[in-house]
Amino acid sequence: MYIISYNVNGIRSAIQKGLYEWIEEELPDVICIQESKAHPEQIPSGLLEEKGYQSFWHSAKRRGYSGVGIISKTEPDNVEFGMGIERYDIEGRFMRADFDDLSIISVYHPNGGGSEERHFFKMDWLDDFLLYINDLKKKRPKLVISGDFNICHREIDIHDPVRNANVSGFLPEERTWISRFLETGFTDSFRHFNQSPNQYTWWSWRANARQRNLGWRIDYNMVSDILQPSLADGGIMPGVKHSDHCPAWVKLSLNEK
Asked: Which CATH code for domain 2-252?
C-alpha cells in the first residue's frame, strides 16, 4: 500500500497548480491531506472520482482554515471524523479511515507560534492526542498516522537548530513529546530508511528558503511498531511544489507478517 501525506496549504490553490494531475501520475493508494482550507462543497471531488478515487473531508467550522481529508482508491470500511473532543474537532484536525484491520489517520497538529494561548492549546492537544491514540491502538493496533505534526524532532530535522531552539515547532517540550510518542510504540517511517541530513518537508516563503533548502521536516508517516516488518520504503518529494510543504510517503507490504 502506497500512502502519501501532503499539507497542501489550500486545496483549491493546489488544484490550480496541478495537484489532481500529479495524483493521476503518482497513483497512490491513499492520500492524507492537511490544511484543505475548504468545506467539502468547495472541493471539486468529481474530478477525483473520474480518476478512480473517493474522498472524505473534515473541515474546520471557521471557513478557509485548517481542515483534513483522506483520498482513497478503495472504499474504507469506516470513516471517523474528529476525535470526539469539540474544542479540537471544530478546527478540523483529525480523521481516520479503516481498511480491514489497518487504520490510516490524517492529522494536522496545531501551530503554536501565533500566541501564548495557541502554544498552550497546542500542548493540550498533544497530550490529549497521545491519550486518544494509545487508547485507539488497543482496539486498532495497526495504525498509520500521516500528517503535519508542526514539530521537528531532532536537530537533523531542521536547517538551523541553534537559532530555532526557542521557536515554536522546535521547542524542547515539543521535541520531548515526539520522543514520548515514538516510545509508546511508533516508528518514524522516513528515519527508518533515511538518516541523511538536509531532508525537509516545509520551507518558509521568505528569503528563497526553498531554493536554498533552508527547511524543516515536520510532516510524518508514523507507523505503529506492529507494522514495522511491513515497511517497504519511505521518503519525501521536495521537487513537488503545489504548496510550501512537500509530500511525505510510505509504502507497506501488507502481505508480510
From this structure: 3.60.10.10
